[in-house]
Design brief:
Length: 462
C-alpha cells in the first residue's frame, strides 16, 4: 500500500511540474513562475507532512524521488560554482574599465561586506539579549547527541588554530584541489588564486600587451560559455524550487520548531532587521529599495529554498548585471567575494547569537560592553572563508566559539531548527552580496541607473 501512496505522490508532483512548464510555454514571467513554485511547494509539502508524517516510509521515499529534481538542480548549480568563481574573478580583471579602479573596487566590496557583517553581529547580539535567549536549558535528544558527536571531528580542525593560522588556511596551497571544494575554505582560496592570476595579467598587459590580449580573449570566451551554461541551468529554477520547498515543509519537525520558537523568532527578527538595513543603505545611495526588492526576489527566493549561497551565485551575478545595471566586473567581485567573506546571516548573526547564549555558562556577562566589542571583532575576522553552502554557519560558529573559549555543544542542540533558520540566513547572505555590488557600482559610477529603475523584464529571456 505504501508503494501506491508513493506513486500517487509522484504523479501529483509530475502534474505540478507540468503546470509550471505550461506557464513557461505561455511566457509567464520567470519571477511569477518561481513564486508560484514556492507557494505550490509549501502547500504540497504541508499536505504530505500531515498525511504521512515526517519520518514515515512514504514521506522518506517520496522525498528521495523529489531529490532527483531538487538536489539534482542544486548539484548542477554547484557544478558550475567553482569554475564560475574563478572565471568571474579573471574576467573582472580583463575588463579595461575595471582595471583602472581595481584597488578601489576591491576595497569597497570588502569594506561593505565586512561592515555589514559587523552590523549583523550587533543585531544578532541585540536580538539574543532582547529575547533573553539562554543556551543552558536546552535539552539533548538522540539527534542532538549524534550531531554533537559529528561536531567533535569538525572542531578538532579549528579549535587549536589561532586567528593568524586560520588566515593562513585561506591561502591556496593546491588550487586544483580547491577547485573541487576539498576544504571548507576552498571558495576563498579559489578567489585568492584567481585574483593572483588577474594581477599577473595586469603586469603582463603593461609589458607584453599582445600576450595579454590573447589571454583576455580566452578568458572572455570561457566566461561567455560558462555564463551560457549557467543560463541553461537557471531556467530550471522553478522546478528546483518546487522540489526543494516541498522537501522542507514535508520533513520539518514542527514540534521541535515550537519548542525552540523563541530562538527561531529571535533569529528571524535579526534577519529581517538586517534586511531592512540593506534597504536603508540602498536608500541612502538614492536608489529605490522597492525596485531592489522586486528585482532581487527571484534570487533571494532560490537562496531561501536551496540554503546555498554558492548555488545562488549564478543567479546573483545575473540579477546584478541584467537587472541592477552593475558592471560585470563589480558583479563578479561582489558575488564571488560574498560567498566566502562577510556573510551577514551565516557568519554574522548566527555565531553572535550562539556566543551570547552560552556566555553565562562560561561565567561571562553577555551584556558586558567589552565582551560584545570583542565578539563583534572576532565574528568579523572569522567571517573570512565561510563555505557558501549548507553548513557554513556551523563552521563559522565553531570558529567564533573556539576563539572565545566558549562551549560548542550548543551548535548541535539546535539541529532541529537549523534548516528553517538557515533558509533566512542564506537569503540574507545573498542580499548582502547584492547590496555590496550595488553600493560599489553607485560609488564608482559603474552602474546604469536606467536599468536599475526601469520596469523589470523577464529574467533569462535570452
Amino acid at each position: 500500500m505504501n508503494i501506491l501512496y508513493i506513486i500517487i505522490n509522484l504523479a501529483v508532483f509530475i502534474i505540478l511540474l507540468a503546470g509550471l512548464y505550461a506557464m513557461q510555454r505561455k511566457h509567464v514571467s520567470f519571477s511569477k513562475r518561481v513564486f508560484s513554485a514556492l507557494g505550490i511547494g509549501i502547500v504540497f509539502g504541508i499536505i504530505l507532512h500531515f498525511l504521512y508524517g515526517t519520518t514515515s516510509y512514504v514521506t522518506n521515499h517520496t522525498i528521495d524521488w523529489l531529490n532527483i529534481v531538487g538536489s539534482g538542480y542544486v548539484s548542477l548549480l554547484q557544478m558550475v560554482v567553482m569554475p564560475l568563481v574563478s572565471i568571474s574573478i579573471l574576467a573582472a580583471f580583463t575588463k579595461l574599465k575595471l582595471t583602472k579602479n581595481i584597488g578601489k573596487i576591491s576595497f569597497l566590496v570588502l569594506a561593505i561586506l565586512l561592515g555589514t557583517t559587523a552590523i549583523a553581529a550587533a543585531l544578532g547580539i541585540g536580538s539574543a539579549l532582547l529575547y533573553g535567549l539562554d543556551g543552558i536549558h536546552l535539552t539533548q535528544g538522540t539527534a542532538e547527541a549524534a550531531r554533537n558527536a559529528e561536531l567533535k571531528t569538525s572542531v578538532a580542525s579549528v579549535k587549536d588554530m589561532t586567528i593568524p593560522q586560520q588566515i593562513v588556511s585561506f591561502l591556496p596551497n593546491n588550487p586544483f584541489a580547491d577547485l573541487t571544494g576539498a576544504r571548507p575554505t576552498s571558495t576563498i582560496a579559489v578567489v585568492i588564486f584567481s585574483a593572483i592570476l588577474g594581477m599577473a595579467y595586469l603586469g603582463v598587459k603593461r609589458k607584453q600587451p599582445e600576450q595579454a590580449e590573447h589571454f583576455a580573449k580566452i578568458v572572455d570566451t570561457l566566461y561567455t560559455i560558462v555564463m551560457r551554461v549557467v543560463t541553461l541551468i537557471l531556467r530550471l529554477t522553478p522546478y528546483g524550487v518546487l522540489a526543494l520547498i516541498t522537501k522542507v515543509t514535508a520533513s520539518s519537525d514542527y514540534g521541535a520548531i515550537v519548542k525552540l520558537a523563541k530562538f527561531v523568532l529571535a533569529s528571524y527578527t535579526a534577519i529581517i532587521v538586517m534586511f531592512l538595513v540593506h534597504l536603508l543603505l540602498i536608500s541612502l545611495a538614492k536608489l529605490s529599495p522597492v525596485r531592489y526588492v522586486q528585482k532581487a526576489l527571484p534570487a533571494l527566493t532560490f537562496a531561501f529554498t536551496s540554503r546555498s549561497s554558492a548555488g545562488t551565485l549564478p543567479l546573483n551575478i545575473e540579477t546584478q548585471t541584467k537587472h541592477f545595471g552593475i558592471s560585470e566586473g563589480i558583479a563578479n567581485f561582489s558575488a564571488s567575494f560574498g560567498l566566502s567573506i562577510g556573510q551577514n546571516g551565516c557568519a554574522g548573526i548566527y555565531p553572535a547569537m550562539l556566543a551570547i547564549m552560552v556566555a553565562p555558562s562560561a561565567g561571562i556577562n553577555p551584556a558586558s560592553p567589552s565582551f560584545i566589542i570583542t565578539l563583534i571583532l572576532v565574528v568579523v575576522v572569522s567571517s573570512f572563508g565561510v563555505a557558501g553552502v549548507g553548513g557554513g554557519a556551523t563552521f563559522a560558529s565553531l570558529i567564533v566559539l573556539s576563539v572565545l573559549n566558549l562551549p560548542i555543544a550548543i551548535v548541535g542542540l539546535l539541529i532541529s531548527v537549523e534548516p528553517l533558520i538557515d533558509m533566512g540566513r542564506t537569503a540574507l547572505n545573498v542580499s548582502g552580496a547584492m547590496t555590496s555590488g550595488i553600493l560599489t557600482g553607485k560609488i564608482t559610477g559603474e552602474m546604469d541607473k536606467k536599468i536599475y529603475q526601469q520596469e523589470d523584464a523577464d529574467l533569462l529571456e535570452a
